[in-house]
């Protein structure tokens, strides 16, 4: 007799993970056989795994050698907010939003950082006028809207000779779409989307221009201890 608490229908794909996303088709628990469970990320084995993840990321995604790659806490959200809190404020800001995560970044910038940002908004299913964005200012946008599925067509709308920084939430794009690294100064994503990994860790990729801003600019507001 079937236990009434047991679902009659099961998912067609049993590899359901956080995100919600599916793990890759060959994934098994054996992949965690050498996981250093209970060990600090500051231990030698933890640092070695982080270094390997960063080096493999650079190789797989073709990230230029002069770009910096970091693994940060709090998933993609932590990576985006770390970038905005640390980099914005030196120049005027352009905010692009056409789905819920992009609109969340607008809330951060306008209500939390209290910056007088210029907004470029569109309804779900559409993009704002990308030609109206002023890249002499810092620009914050999502590459592929997680909740709407609408993405920018390519990086051609971003000028190579821009004066501002581009801060791109690419969490639903990295590993699914080719990204023009020369057009992106800050790129963020998490392992839980296209990779089907677990949440909690964010990836932060910085161009030399973004690193130069970090080294030369101190924001007017305090930074959480976890950000610097």
Topology:
Elements: E1 16-17, E2 21-22, H1 44-61, E3 68-73, H2 75-87, E4 93-97, H3 100-112, E5 118-121, E6 138-142, E7 166-169, E8 186-190, E9 201-206, H4 208-216
Parallel strand pairs: 4-5, 4-6, 6-7, 7-8
Antiparallel strand pairs: 1-2, 3-9, 8-9
Give me some keywords for this one.
228 residues, alpha/beta, Aspartate Aminotransferase, domain 2, two-stranded antiparallel sheet, 9 strands, globular
First-residue to last-residue Cα separation: 58 Å
CATH topology: Aspartate Aminotransferase, domain 2
Strand content: 15-25%
Please give the count of helices: 4
Strand order of the largest sheet: 3-9-8-7-6-4-5
CATH architecture: 3-Layer(aba) Sandwich
CA-based shape: globular
Describe what this molecule looks like in 3D:
The protein has 228 residues and is of the alpha/beta class. The protein has a single domain (46-216), classed as Aspartate Aminotransferase, domain 2. It is 23% helix and 17% strand. It contains four helices and nine strands; from the N terminus they run ββαβαβαβββββα. The strands form two sheets. The protein has a seven-stranded mixed sheet with strand order 3-9-8-7-6-4-5, sandwiched between helices. Strands 1-2 form a two-stranded antiparallel ribbon. A hairpin with a 3-residue loop joins strand 1 and strand 2. The mean pLDDT is 93.
């Amino acid at each position: 007799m079937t236990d009434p608490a047991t679902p009659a229908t099961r998912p067609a794909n049993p590899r359901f993970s956080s995100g919600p996303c599916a793990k890759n088709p060959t994934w098994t628990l054996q992949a965690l056989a050498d996981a250093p469970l209970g060990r600090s990320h500051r231990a030698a084995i933890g640092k070695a795994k982080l270094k390997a993840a960063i080096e493999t990321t650079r190789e797989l995604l073709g990230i230029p050698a002069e770009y910096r790659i970091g693994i940060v806490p709090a998933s993609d959200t932590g990576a985006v907010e770390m970038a905005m809190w640390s980099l914005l404020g030196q120049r005027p800001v352009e905010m692009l939003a056409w789905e819920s995560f992009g609109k969340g970044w607008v809330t951060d910038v306008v209500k939390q950082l209290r910056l007088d940002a210029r907004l470029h908004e569109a309804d779900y299913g559409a993009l704002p006028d990308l030609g109206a964005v002023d890249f002499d200012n810092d620009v914050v946008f999502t590459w592929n809207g997680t909740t709407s599925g609408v993405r920018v067509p390519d990086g051609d709308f971003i000028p190579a000779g821009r004066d501002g920084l581009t801060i791109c939430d690419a969490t639903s794009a990295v590993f699914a779409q080719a990204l023009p690294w020369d057009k992106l100064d800050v790129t963020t994503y998490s392992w839980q989307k296209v990779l089907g990994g677990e949440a909690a860790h964010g990836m932060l990729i910085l161009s030399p221009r973004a690193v130069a801003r970090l080294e030369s600019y101190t924001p007017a507001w305090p930074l959480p201890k976890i950000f610097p």
